[in-house]
Amino acid sequence: MRTAAEYGPAPTARQAPAVALRDVTKVYPGGVRALDGVSVTVERGAFVAIMGPSGSGKSTLMHCAAGLDTPTGGSVSIDGVTIDGLNETRRTELRRERVGFVFQSYNLVPSLSVADNITLPLRLAGRAPDHDWVRLLVERVGLSGRLGHRPAELSGGQQQRAAIARALVTRPAVVFGDEPTGALDLKTAREVLGLLRDLVSGLGQTVVMVTHDPAAAARADQVLVMADGRLRETLDRPTATELAHRITTLESE
Amino acid sequence: MLHLALRMARHRIAALLAVACAALGGAAFVTGIGVLAESGFRSHAPVERLARADVVVSAAQTYHPKGGLAIGLPERARVPRELTARLARLPGVTAAVGDVSFPAAVLDRHGAVLPAGDTGDPAVAGHGWSSTALLDHPRVSGAAPAGPGDVALDTRTAAAAGVAPGGQVTVVAAGRRATYRVSAVIGAAGGGVFFTDATAANLGGRGRVDLVALRTAPGARDSVAERTRAVAGPAGLVVSTGAARGDVESPDAMAGRSVLPLLAGSLAGVTLLVAGFIVGGSLAVSIGAQRRDLALLRAVGATPKQVRRLAAAQAVAVSGAALVPGIPLGYLLADRLGWLLVFAGMLPSSLPLTYSPLPAIAAALLLLLVVRVSAWCAALRTSRMAATEAVAESRSEPRTPSTRRAFAGFLLMGGAAVLSVAPLLTRTQEGAAVTALAGILATIGLGLAGPVVVGRISGALARRLPARVSAPTCLAVANSRGYTLRVAGAVTTLAMAVVFTLTYALTQTTLLKATSDDVESATRAQYTMTAPGLGGLPDDLAAAVRATPGVRATAPVTTTTVIWTYTMFGDDEADSHSAPILTPAASSVLDLGVRSGDLADLTGATVAVDADAARLRKVSVGGTVSLVLGDGAPVEARVVAIYSRGLGFGPVAISRDLATGHTTTGLDQSLLIRTDGSDAAGRGLAALASSRPGLALGRAYGAPDGAYGVPPELWINIAILAVLLGYLLLGIANKLVASTVQRRHEIAALQLIGATPGQIRSMMRREAALICVVALGTGLLLSVVPLVLLATGFLHRPWPAGPLWLFPAIAAVVAGIAFLTMEVPTRRALRTPPAEALTRA
């Protein structure tokens, strides 16, 4: 039996940061400047939260960092690989190998069982699942007895746990979360955040999470605060109260 | 509510476009059929010869069966000649004309037939002198015909014949050729060949007149019509004024129009089924797309009734907009269909279609009703759920298919199979029509049972799938299993196209083959002689043909219409049939497949009857049948023979003796000729035909004037099949595109977890392939049962007649539609960045 640490991210380019954005600008058709020269580096094993008022550019920042959206200017690299100028298929392949996603609305495939949903990214990549790793993940997220169920038969929290397991199954360099607790009640949200925290500390995963919930952001190692498409400040291990105050000030500006 | 409905609709353009297209096509078809049906009741042939008559008295040219639609009688029924004098005495009548029309053709100096009369139809070109009173301001040069050897000609005919008053001209009148003295030339818009009234009565009316035309004093028309009714009504005669005079003028055109309600009736069933299917299917997709919106409305406080009303309002608004172009299209369609019917010889070219707003109103009401009901049904499930449940369910799309619905579906398919036994019981067109209907019913059954069937098939497939199969295949199978409703919707519509095409087309071709087999194997003659220029065969022709070396046998065959009245299950029935008029000599040129009795006994009031009809109507040789002849005369006739080739010759053939005096011309229409098969005989007959005026010699099988042969309805059916199939395919394509467009969210989610665009496309292609295979398989299966039964009944073999390429062709079309309707929207969906698609959805 291998230890949990041995299941960490694939050993490619260990020295490179998980995600690096340099001077990234995103201008939408019509002239809306969603990102205005943002530079961010997320080191391996970090738990980063992105906060900001609505329209501050936090979602766009995540989409660009994850290779879902192409920036108008600047450069993005994931796990040391520069993704600028890659076509959709190449970017998908890169995402599949090195990026995991957790969405607010889970986005599990309703017609597949929980087990099939979790291993789907491996199937898409044409890789055989590593059964030990899958079993470990399922145990960690607490879905051991539910593998044969359909997503519709699970509670919201359970569906999000399955989505987290799916995001981790390829052992990605970074997991992005887009309001991962947005659809959950307080207790379940706390459990899911605890799970994410645990994955970072216990398995050495890198997690980047967009949220507007100060309590959620307070679980992160580092919080990036966005406003008007710019990175306003970087807070290390802030408290929820501190964060709530910061956001309220920003929103009233 | 409507405002809200339209605002919601704006975001579901693809699905609503499908609804609009379905409604547009449905409106066009229903309007078109409505125009045909209405024309069948209200169209009048144009008034030409009788334009100057104010009131016309004639015999009834319709037969009114108990509790049924009136049947037109194509053969002229005549009225007593004395009536003219009686009506002339009525106050207000300024002139009364006892009008007769009979075959007459003028020959020129070289013995060639001149186009005669105003209608150009030689069968009604001859008239009595008093009919000149119907001409518009005739300029008569010369004197009225004074004796049996005198005629008057119109200016055009006289000039073509090169004669002037006092000259000699050869006329073939009522089959008799003679030389007449031209007593007058008449300059008028109309024309014809005018004899003395006495001669005309002998030649045409046999002592009676066709009709009495009255001219009245100014303003006296209505009072005269009233008085005339008092005189003529008790005698069973009909008084016509205005546009109705056109029907009296040409009873064959009037009878021809009665084909329209029959045709409309037979089309209405299948058209309504197809239109309802397409409209209902597209609405189900459209409402399904808005299920989440509707559920949210429930959550914010809309009552279930309000939600259903909203869904219905939206559907009605969209279909209402589609009616605007759909209804004019329907009138256009009716026009084309009318043209086609004239082309096929089923409708007289002189009969115009009636275009009134009535069919449009009927189509609009019918369609909006279908739309409302479909929308209501589609929204029922969502609207009835508890509000919170509705939102929750809107997220987890797959649900277990209802077993009750599936049971109803299987029941319907079983019923359709039972129904398709009909062609085994009755070898008639009506029997064959059941085949296609059974096919369509079975598809509707498939529509109900579809989700369960698809679930079983994809479930079995999923279990047999090897573990290491590629991701797109695994996803495709899982989707087909998880979204059984959506997949079943696609499968059912495509299977509908397969069943519709196979059963309809192969029914027609099988019927065609069986009919032409009947006619071909029945015809022992090689030639047929007709007289298109004379309006009927000259009376001395048969002897001349028989005298031609090499001719073995001849017999005249004429086609008329009879109405067979009988009792079935205690109900009085009356069916109108086209029937051949045969002589005892018929068996020398025709082999009708006589089972019992003898065609040689066809003398006096006798008939021969098809075996199927005889069995169903319970008659046998020696028994009697009640018929109404083509002019409305009721007769009792003894059955002298039972024959088996009823498909080619109709259910009843009547003796010439029985028909005498009950046809318009009183002349034979064609002569079937059997020779020794030598070229010399053929040359002899050709020489005979060209040496005498107005004759035409043709091959016996497929006679040009259609004495009998392939019924034109078959061609009409095939043409209509093509148009309906186009509509069906368009509806299917729209529906499939709409349902693929809705999968954008699902596609985006897959892309985010690492599916490349290529993998998504390949997943969709596999789903399309699966849908295609299941649709073709079930479609073929549902068609096979009725078609095997049909072929067994009609061709005495288990497989139907028809082109071999039909199945591959429809398979290719179905595959093309399935792939294109999934590929194109998928490619479009893939162009939107997945993150954007997710937030938008």
TrEMBL record, chain A:
Q: Which domain of life is it from?
A: Bacteria
- The name of this protein is ABC transporter ATP-binding protein
Q: What is the lineage of its organism?
A: Bacteria, Bacillati, Actinomycetota, Actinomycetes, Streptosporangiales
| Species whose genome carries this gene | Actinoallomurus oryzae
Key words, A-Z: ATP-binding, Nucleotide-binding, Transport
Q: Which InterPro entries match?
A: AAA+_ATPase (IPR003593), ABC_transporter-like_ATP-bd (IPR003439), ABC_transporter-like_CS (IPR017871), ABC_transpr_LolD-like (IPR015854), MacB-like_ATP-bd (IPR017911), P-loop_NTPase (IPR027417)
SUPFAM superfamilies membership: P-loop containing nucleoside triphosphate hydrolases
Q: Which GO terms describe its molecular function?
A: ATP binding
Sequence ranges assigned to domain ABC transporter in this UniProt record: 19-253
UniProtKB/TrEMBL annotation, chain B:
- Transmembrane stretches in the record are 262-289, 310-334, 354-375, 406-425, 431-454, 487-506, 714-734, 768-792, 804-822
Q: Cellular location of this protein? A: Cell membrane
Q: Which UniProt keywords apply?
A: Cell membrane, Membrane, Transmembrane, Transmembrane helix
> From which residue to which does the signal peptide run?
none
Q: Name one Pfam family in it.
A: FtsX
Domain ABC3 transporter permease C-terminal, by residue range, is 267-385, 719-834
Give the InterPro entries listed for this entry.
Answer: ABC3_permease_C, Membrane_comp_ABC_pdt
Topology within the bilayer: Multi-pass membrane protein
Q: What is this protein called in UniProt? A: FtsX-like permease family protein
Which source organism does the UniProt entry give? Actinoallomurus oryzae
